[in-house]
Amino acid sequence: MGTHVVSTDEKTGMQALERLHETKPVRPGLVERVEFEYIRHGTLSLIANFDVATGKAICPSIGPTRTEADFAAHIDKTVESDPGATWIFVVDQLDTHRSASLLRLVARRCGLEEALGVKGKQGILKSKKTRRKFLEDHSFTSIDDLRSRVFQFVEYFHRMLAKPFRWTYTGRPLQA
Q1: How far apart are CA 111 and CA 33, in angstroms?
Q2: pLDDT < 70 regions, the chain
């Protein structure tokens, strides 16, 4: 249990292609020749999380689409892998990253009892702008707020990430 900072993105349109004829191998005086005709067997989309602290891809989702529902399900599955932790997702500006489905999921997971409103009409669900504001981390409102958040990060870093530096240089000392 702790805090996970992950960068989440999609890789869409990964094609399963079967070459119609075999590749012709390299021969003296000839390069390898790859058949240009192929049979399409469909596409898949990958939604992946890059864990910033470990450098590992965690909880990947692979399916035929990357819809609003797919992205919300991916985030739900990811959070469920460590439900007691705090999760920070870094995402780009894709519409599915600020969808009504995602907002409802976040509100439910965070135990927020406030009325979310109605999509397209009122409240937090009203527009992309209102949903984005709810889903994004709050910006710094003052120098004191910034200072406090930096000190909080330093404390977190010391607790969770700090480790002694291991010198690996084994050669001769530098001479002046």
Answers
A1: 59
A2: 1, 113, 137-138, 140, 174, 176
Confidence at residue 101, expressed as pLDDT on a 0 to 100 scale:
92
What distance in Å separates the CA atoms of residue 126 and residue 106, rounded to the nearest whole number?
16
Q: Is 55 exposed, middle or buried (0-12, 13-18, 19+ CB in 10 A)?
A: exposed
pLDDT of 116 reads: 84
Q: In this predicted structure, what is the pLDDT of residue 131? A: 87
**CA nearest to 77, candidates 103, 98, 105, 107:** 105
CATH of 3-160, picked from 3.30.2020, 3.30.420, 1.20.1070, 2.60.40, is 3.30.420
Q: Where are the domains of the chain?
A: 3-160
Alpha-carbon gap, residue 151 to 128, rounded angstroms: 32
E strand map for 20-121: 38-51, 57-63, 86-90
